[in-house]
């Protein structure tokens, strides 16, 4: 529950290329890992696999900084958080290409679960037909046939079975041009990165936009925003 609450906040307002919420993508990836006989730590890591890449910690920066790692570690534990950090830094395109050429023996032991998470992510990318809704998306994912081959090399037979049994579903659908997106993903809303603003009414009258922050037990900083219009007489 703590892990889900964290991604719901860090990825609020973010969407995948198909229009699906980013949180749905994360939950889908974790479900695939769990269904493919992944461990508890692997499943938790899959749920937060993109947190250091796209999660909004409020500082506007990517990467596993110490304060971010501490927050994630408190949510999912040390072993799962280490997988998440390794996932962020792992050069997955190059390493999976090497797996295709030389088998799983080219990977170090710590890389194997990270590769499994990446393959599960690639399978989930197809579940919502993203390639059909956003043609430019295909360039950012690994070919599905190669995903299956890599999973075979890694001995992840459950993932192979999952992908093969759903081949028709995972194939890109035929989407009418008006419904296709020309961007890879929609722009995210940044709830932790809100800044103080002043708004102008249509009459040219300026309004005050006030921010107040307080600590809520069991939660992190919450920002409240409200407007108080100046009356014409004031």
Describe this structure in words.
The protein has 234 residues and is mainly α. The protein has helices at 2-10, 22-35, 40-47, 51-54, 66-76, 78-89, 92-102, 111-127, 130-133, 144-154, 157-165, 167-170, and strands at 208-214, 222-228. It folds into 2 domains: 2-179, Orthogonal Bundle (Hypothetical protein af1432); 194-228. Strands 1-2 form a two-stranded antiparallel sheet. The chain is globular and about 40 Å long.
Per the CATH scheme, the topology name of the largest domain is Hypothetical protein af1432
DSSP summary, beta strand count: 2
CATH architecture of the largest domain: Orthogonal Bundle
How much is the average pLDDT?
78
In quaternary terms, these chains amount to: single chain
In terms of DSSP E residues, the strand content is 5-15%
Give the C-level CATH assignment of the largest domain.
Mainly Alpha
Layout of strands and helices, then pairs:
Elements: H1 2-10, H2 22-35, H3 40-47, H4 51-54, H5 66-76, H6 78-89, H7 92-102, H8 111-127, H9 130-133, H10 144-154, H11 157-165, H12 167-170, E1 208-214, E2 222-228
Antiparallel strand pairs: 1-2
